Amino acid sequence: MITPVLPTYARAPLSFVEGEGPWLKTEDGTRYLDMGAGIAVASLGHAHPRLVEALETQARRLWHTSNLYEIPNQTRLAEMLIESSFADTVFFTNSGTEATEAAVKMARKYHSVKETGRFEIITFNGSFHGRTLGMISAAGAEKLTKGFGPLLPGFVHVDYGDDAALHAAINERTAAIMVEPVQGEGGIVPIPDEALRALRTLCDEQGILLIYDEIQCGMGRTGKLFAHEWSGATPDIMAVAKGIGGGFPLGACLATEEAASGMVAGTHGTTYGGNPLACAVGCAVMEVMGEDGFLENVSRVAGHMRQGLDSLVARYPDVFELVRGSGLMIGVKCVVPNMDVVNAGYDHKLLTVPGGDNVIRILPPLNITTDDVDEALRRLEGAAADISGRAA
Ligand SMILES: *Cc1c(COP(=O)(O)O)cnc(C)c1O
């Protein structure tokens, strides 16, 4: 029988009524330690006082006017993003997939205006760019596209790391290459810094735009504001979302002036994107992340987490295979089915997120303390011990 809410999600039988920092509470008061942060979204934890204050203040003044008019919070957030990135301009959206859509539209428009004849976008197998028809066509995986055809043409998929295939895919139609600097849904697969730099060089040589999808790996997650900063290879266009709103729906497409040159008045738009509430929260997120020591602390806590996880993997080789990732974007590849570990985690009141390639994803709030990390490690060890059938 159909459920009131369309049954497209395989939901855990859990629901939460309250949150504080990395903790979530159910109706009966049971506390869960949240190492998923709503899939890398609650980047500053739940109910962060600065974000609550920003939202409440704006909510009392004005909710919505539309993009028919100037939105001061939007301009301010754009300026903050530009100040701390490669970008010269920003388009705001409500979600990640709208940000990658905007990125692809921008790349095609650029080449159209320049009359280069280029329109194809190269993407990588195992990537995830969202759920619109355009973005499932972009990622191409059958589990996203099956039954939804015909798909949007103009995407070419290559295996990540297969340079011969990549070079073979490039031709006079190639408009852009789109890549996640750290693949998220695909199972937390970081692209090596040299590989990103090589993509940048290739794009420059061939007149191709480079698009990063930093929707999951951006906004401080890896210990830099944007993941690609570790490599020094900047994109022409970049999609961000998830962590930028700290839980309030917000996304953005950042670009250089050159890459954005085709996007003149009337070419693109959204009713809600960048509305006053979302941008008030976005500004507060940027302010907190811009404070001295915030990103250094992400790296420090991530080092502590990583050490603990490496040790856990070594002690439970029948449960875990390896740890990989960058900063507080961590994947633990499992030997047993990853959902067994996620479910055993629930028994220990620990929330983790399943991902591709049989990983569990650990994506905690970025301001988590080492004490909470230690608690998470104890709970994950409890889950591993249950699965391996021995005492922790
Ligand atoms: C989550 C995600 C998206 C899609 O974002 P939505 O807000 O769900 O539309 C796109 N790309 C990446 C890398 C993501 O992690």
TrEMBL record:
May also have succinyldiaminopimelate aminotransferase activity, thus carrying out the corresponding step in lysine biosynthesis. GO terms for biological process: L-arginine biosynthetic process. Pyridoxal 5'-phosphate binds at residues 96-97, 128, 213-216, 271. It is an enzyme of class 2 (transferase). It comes from Pontivivens marinum. Belongs to the class-III pyridoxal-phosphate-dependent aminotransferase family. ArgD subfamily. GO terms for cellular component: cytoplasm. The modification N6-(pyridoxal phosphate)lysine is found at residue 242. This is Acetylornithine aminotransferase. Its EC number is 2.6.1.11. N(2)-acetyl-L-ornithine binds at residues 131, 270. It catalyses: N(2)-acetyl-L-ornithine + 2-oxoglutarate = N-acetyl-L-glutamate 5-semialdehyde + L-glutamate. InterPro entries: AcOrn/SuccOrn_fam, Aminotrans_3, Aminotrans_3_PPA_site, Class-III_PLP-dep_AT, PyrdxlP-dep_Trfase, PyrdxlP-dep_Trfase_major, PyrdxlP-dep_Trfase_small. Binds 1 pyridoxal phosphate per subunit. NCBIfam families: argD, PRK01278.1. GO terms for molecular function: identical protein binding; N2-acetyl-L-ornithine:2-oxoglutarate 5-aminotransferase activity; pyridoxal phosphate binding. Its cofactor is pyridoxal 5'-phosphate. It comes from the Bacteria. Keywords: Amino-acid biosynthesis, Aminotransferase, Arginine biosynthesis, Cytoplasm, Pyridoxal phosphate, Transferase. The lineage of its organism: Bacteria, Pseudomonadati, Pseudomonadota, Alphaproteobacteria, Rhodobacterales. It is found in: Cytoplasm. Pathway: Amino-acid biosynthesis; L-arginine biosynthesis; N(2)-acetyl-L-ornithine from L-glutamate: step 4/4.
